[in-house]
Structure prediction request, 204 residues.
Amino acid sequence: MRALDWQRFFQQQRDEHRKMVFTTAELANVAQASPGVLNVALRRLVKQGVLARYAAGRYGLPGAVSPEDLVPTLDTSAYVTAMYSLYRHQIITQAPTEITCFTNRRHNRSRVRKTPFGRIVFVCVESAVYSTPRDGVMASGEQAFCDFIHVCRKRGVRASSLVTFRNMDRLDRQSLAEILIRYPVAARREATRLLAKNGLMMPG
Prediction:
């Protein structure tokens, strides 16, 4: 396939099917080419700026893919949460250097993936804590806050030592109360303390 044919294919998939990321296996099927021939073509297309490599074996149009598009292609059970999600919801001031994803699968060697967005880190969490967001792949501000406290405690650090919280009044207290029940006692206490410090008292 020519470069123009690839461009048209990706744009059509984006416009008609909202598909943004493709695996090498999918592209080999489209091109009807062997893996060796395809890899040579992909390297050339990336060099020409026709395609972008977003992770090992994952390609899409340059600038058209977000972490929310990429994560499900790496782990269908994962969702974006913690610091990255808090930043997207404007609950913290610091831009994250890595994207934390909670999953119920163990990734072993592929737990950390290098991408143009920074490192994507998959954290396998207990079933009580694991909860896929209702809408899409991005955790809500309330869930991301609780997940951030939880992952910080697992790493032996205080959340407040890593970030500066803001706009805490945007968090829904009733939702927080319902979500926090799923976490260990120590995490619930830390979250409640941080919320109170920022003037957000829990109901009941």
